[in-house]
Amino acid sequence: MARPPRPRPAVSAALVCGFAFGVSGCAEERPRRPDIALIIADTLRADALGAWGNPRPTSPHLDRLAEGAVVFERVLAAAPNTATSHATLFTGLDPWVHRVANITSLEHGTPGLDGRFSTLAERFAAAGYQTAAFTDDGPLGRGWNLMQGFATLDAKLEGVAKKVDRALEWLRSDAVSAPDAAPFFILLHTYQTHQPFAPPEVFVERFDPGYDGVLRARVAEVRALRERGQGVNDGLMLLAGLASFTERDHTHLRALYDAEVAYLDAELARLWQGLVDLQNFDAMAIAFTSDHGEEFGEHGRWGHVQLHDETLHVPLILKLPHAAHAGRRVAQRVGLVDLHPTLLELGDVAPAAGSRAISLLGPLATGNWADRPVLAQTTEHLYAPLRSKPALASMRQGHFALLVSRASRADAPGSGPPVAALYDIQKDPGEHAPMASRDASGAVQTLDADGSDAAAKLATLLARLQADLVALERTHADLLGGGARMLPGSAELERLHGALGYR
Fold first, then answer.
1. Rounded (5°) CA angle 29-34-154
2. Do the Cβ atoms of 270 and 298 come closer than 8 Å?
3. Strand segments (E) across 249-369
4. SS3 content of the chain, % helix, strand, coil (to 5)
5. For the whole model, what pTM was predicted?
6. Rounded alpha-carbon distances, angstroms, from residue 253 to 190, 217, 499
């Protein structure tokens, strides 16, 4: 039986002064490295939480955590799907570098993560951390190579409540709770906010009482399957016949999502209490985030496929040791990939080779936030059985968002002419009216009052994006020891790369 948690050796403020926050001058020995918890709610868009403006009471406990932490208001995922986005978060590498494809493509023979890339867990384990992951399986199971480095891996699709139960059992074990235990890195991942949305009825009644439409029976079916121990993560069970849904059905679908968020929040409250019970909560680091958001028809799609804001904008709450920067809200746009070096720096662990991400601790300490471009990409088109899928990429910088799609030929993934749209997200935050667009023939249309400026900006950002992708291809080849080649159809991008001075 696990013993009750006992206080760990106290760490003085003097010891903490130089740790991870860029402050020099500490003469005492290095403090005990903090325990680190990473919680990932799959498919959670930022605006579903109260801390990001949701007027519905979806997240009181997460909002309370946010009050004592740093809230990064504009965090963008690197991909619109679970496998690719997690691979980027775990390795610190852009999708174009690690090339992990979406979960639905595994059956077509696409690989998981190349074993030559190192993960967060591997780096923490090598540095002496105890590592454990409690996940809802899928890409975060044993078949994708994403979970390398976790000494304990509990991967089964069973919902947030059981994930929290299992995580708490591990946290209360002798090996973890003993006063002289090594620091831990724990991951909890859940699909609770992923389709199909079927939270307990008490939460549904809280957000949409009295609904009796087509979704009611489907939700009941999902619940019944789960009660029989059959994991369900299939959005089609809810969205079949979507074209015939009424506006009332659409409203209820979003209410189901909010209800899932509220259920998630209530279960995570038990995890927070368990972490507090360890009696070293103050010295601990906690990161709460998601891998991507969810579309509810804003751009004609349901699910998470496109690279618009509703699919990429995710929450990030970062509780730092000893309440550092508590209550700060950061409005500067950053990439979710930047969480990778941030967590490593907190553990005093060296960053991964080839990563372009930056630790967020430095800018937090200095207040100097560079306006770095944030990229997102898909990778399915790189694999022969999936060449029919278009290559999707986006770049956001300043108040502009560029979204690009390339069709593929059988012999050249993502080789077709770019179809591009440029948005002024200061004037059009919902990304509905592009200020300039380019079709497959190369023709440019502008809706902006000054069409020539809009067209020029589109051309500049399109060239910058394509040059950036070439640089990432080189990184891919370099990290794999020259064993990888540039993708077919890259000659034009190479010329752009040199012409724009990116060498």
1. 145
2. no
3. 285-289, 295-296, 302-303, 313-314, 316-319, 329-330, 334-335
4. 40, 15, 45
5. 0.88
6. 20, 13, 49
Q: How far apart are the first and last CA of the chain?
A: 60
Count of positions (residues) in the chain: 503
pLDDT of residue 408: 64
Q: What is the pLDDT of residues 208-237, one digit of tens each?
A: 998 988 888 888 888 887 777 766 666 667
C-beta of residue 383 within 8 angstroms of C-beta of residue 356: no
Residue 475 pLDDT more than 70? yes
Bridge partners for 155 per DSSP: 135
Name all contacts of 456-461 with Cβ < 8 Å and 24+ positions apart.
457/400, 457/422, 458/402, 458/420, 458/422, 461/395, 461/397, 461/400, 461/402, 461/422
Amino acid 491: pLDDT: 45
pLDDT tens column, 358-402: 999 999 999 999 999 999 999 888 887 777 788 899 999 999 999
Give the strands of the sheet with 75-76, arranged side by side.
313-314, 75-76, 334-335
502 Cβ neighbours under 8 A, 6+ residues apart = 467, 468, 470, 471
Q: Tens digits of per-residue pLDDT, 91-101? A: 999 999 999 98
CB atoms within 10 A of CB 1: 6
Residue 471, pLDDT above cutoff 80: yes
Encoded tokens for 314 = 């995710």
Element (H, E) at 204: helix 201-207
- Torsion sign (Cα): 261, 263, 264, 270: positive
Strands 130-135 and 152-155, sheet pairing: parallel
| pLDDT for residue 466 | 86
Cβ-proximal residues to 273 (8 Å cutoff; 6+ apart), any chain: none
User: Pairing relation of β-strands 75-76 and 70-72?
Assistant: unpaired
Bigger pLDDT: 161 vs 488: 161
**pLDDT digits over 313-336, tens only?**
999 999 999 999 999 999 999 999
* Contact status, residue 80 vs residue 325, Cβ threshold 8 Å: no
CA 14, CA 453: separation in Å to the nearest integer? Answer: 54
Block residue for tokens 């909890």: 188
Rounded distance, CA 90 to CA 336, Å?
Answer: 10
Residues whose CB is less than 8 angstroms from the CB of residue 383 and which lie 6 or more positions away in sequence, other chains included = 101, 105, 108, 109, 110, 413
Burial call 157-171: b when 16+ CB within 10 Å, e when fewer: bbbbbbbbebbbebb
Q: How far apart are CA 103 and CA 329, in angstroms?
A: 33
Nearest to 307 by CA among 149, 77, 43, 31: 77
H or E segment and range at residue 474: helix 451-479
Which residue shows structure tokens 């992951």?
133
